[in-house]
Structure formats: structure tokens, C-alpha cells
Design goal:
Layout: H1 15-40, H2 42-45, H3 47-77, H4 89-119, E1 126-128, E2 132-134, H5 146-182
Antiparallel strand pairs: 1-2
Helix pairs in contact: 1-3, 3-4, 4-5
């Protein structure tokens, strides 16, 4: 039993951290769904719908990138709640490792996606939410072998997305275990309300 008592709510994240967490989570889930539609249903939804999905995917991806940067800066300037005192050292290490891997992918996947677009031989502009023109990354648009570079970057982006999906499944399973089985209040720290 935890020193805080079984089912007791530990110290919570700040309101800003909670808001950023759930906005990024919703953005990532949307990106996964749209990404699967773009790649798996491309033949059935048609070129115009596919183009619109690509534009939406890029818009949400850049939004997640910006939110992730803010989230990491907030994380470095605001100490997160401590883990339960009775959590084994191995489990603590795994939790910290998983969180930092998720942070890396929250930055890395939008950046590789941005790089794919920037190096694409199609030279399609990115306009976030059909409102805000977004520039390409430097150097990449002027490469002589853009198609080959774009292909490699797209491969990295796609496999990185599958790795992210695997890590999210682990993350969800861990949250489920803590909330339903251990009942140690871990999930309540990141919920918008204190209500159980």
C-alpha cells in the first residue's frame, strides 16, 4: 500500500501541463487516424480527398510540434509530481524512459514529416488549416536528389509512427494498470478534474 493510502490522489500536474498533455494526445490520435487513412485507404478515397487529408495531417503535425516544444519547455521549468514512493526502481526507470521516448517522437515525427514535404519533388505548398502559409525547411528544397531523400525520410517517418503507436499502447496499458489494478492515483494527476 502506498504511503499516501490506497486510491489517494498524489500531487497533480499544473493546469498548463494537463492542457498541453491532452491537446497533444488528441493531436497525435488524429494524426494516427489520418495517417492510416492516407496510406491504407488511398485507392478508395480518391486523389482530392487524399490531398485534403495530407494538408490536414501536415497542419495537425506542425501544431503538435509547436505544442510539444512548449510542453518540454514547461517540463524543464516546472517540476512534475513525484512517482509513488513504493514504485519499484525498475518501474520508475521504465516510466521515465518511456516518457522521454514519447517526447523524442513528439518532436521527431513532425520534423521528419516536415522534412518529407520540404524535400518532395512535387513542391506542394503547406498552408496550415488553409489559412497560414508554412515554409519548407532550409536546404532540402534545393537538393539535386530530392526524390531519393524524400523517400528515405518518408520511410523513417512511417516506421517512427509505428514505433509511436507501440509506445502509446504500452503507455495506455501502464495507465490502465495503475488506475484500475493498483489504484494508486497516477492517472488522477493528469485529469482535468479532481473528481474520480
Amino acid at each position: 500500500m502506498s504511503a499516501m493510502g490506497r486510491g489517494a490522489s498524489p500531487e497533480r500536474y499544473t493546469a498548463v501541463a494537463i492542457l498541453l498533455h491532452w491537446l497533444i494526445a488528441l493531436g497525435i490520435l488524429a494524426l494516427i487516424v489520418i495517417g492510416l487513412m492516407m496510406t491504407q485507404l488511398q485507392a478508395t478515397i480518391g486523389p482530392m480527398e487524399t490531398f485534403k487529408l495530407f494538408q490536414l495531417h501536415k497542419s495537425i503535425g506542425i501544431t503538435v510540434l509547436l505544442l510539444a516544444v512548449i510542453r518540454i519547455l514547461w517540463r524543464f521549468t516546472h517540476k512534475p509530481p513525484v512517482l509513488p514512493a513504493d514504485m519499484p526502481a525498475v518501474e520508475r526507470g521504465a516510466a521515465h524512459g518511456l516518457h522521454w521516448l514519447l517526447y523524442i517522437l513528439m518532436l521527431g515525427l513532425p520534423l521528419t514529416g516536415w522534412a518529407v514535404v520540404s524535400s518532395s519533388p512535387f513542391n506542394l505548398p503547406t498552408v496550415l488549416y488553409s489559412l497560414i502559409p508554412w515554409p519548407d525547411l532550409p536546404v532540402l528544397p534545393h537538393l539535386a536528389n530530392k526524390a531519393a531523400v524524400s523517400h528515405v525520410l518518408a520511410w523513417v517517418h512511417a516506421y517512427g509512427a509505428w514505433i509511436l503507436i507501440g509506445l502509446l499502447i504500452i503507455h495506455f496499458a501502464a495507465v490502465f494498470r495503475h488506475h484500475i489494478i493498483k489504484r494508486d492515483g497516477i492517472l488522477l494527476r493528469m485529469m482535468p478534474s479532481r473528481r474520480r
